[in-house]
Amino acid sequence: MKPLLAKDLPNFTSRFGNFVDAEIRSVEVISATIIQVIIACQDSARGFDWLTLNFEFSAVSDARLLDNSKLNLVDMSEGISLINEDNYFAFAIGDYHNLSGIKNATSYIISSSIKYEEGQF
Q1: Would you say 15 and 37 are in contact if contact means Cβ atoms under 8 Å apart?
Q2: At the top level of its lineage, which domain of life is listed (predicted)?
Q3: Residue 34, SS3?
């Protein structure tokens, strides 16, 4: 897995079209402080081919998660938000711009680091 750095977030989210109309495949709690999320999305760097991204959030300090059985019902028309603020990374379903806003999301994760791995669709 590759670390996702704060300086790379804008280009990363842009590469995947802010994950608009992506599909969250699964959310798994690995331990009390590690959460893994798998998302299927289109990659503009590969001619908009579909692929999966496996995210690993470490040192999770706060989260609101959806049950995997409800993931296919989530409206992804606003994509996801990945932001870095106050030395925390935040992931949320929807279009958010700061940590306080993210806490209003349907589902969110706040952690100290993010890693990702690209996989086949």
Answers
A1: no
A2: Bacteria
A3: strand
CB neighbourhood size of 16 (10 A): 21
Whole-prediction pTM: 0.92
Cα within 13 Å of Cα(2), Cβ side:
9
% the chain with pLDDT above 70 = 100
Q: Which residues contact 87 (CB under 8 A, 6 or more apart)?
A: 112
Q: Count of domains in the chain?
A: 1
Distance CA 23, CA 25 (A): 6
**Structure confidence by residue, pLDDT tens digits, 39-75:** 999 998 777 789 999 999 999 999 999 999 999 899 9
Residue located via tokens 């990659």 = 43
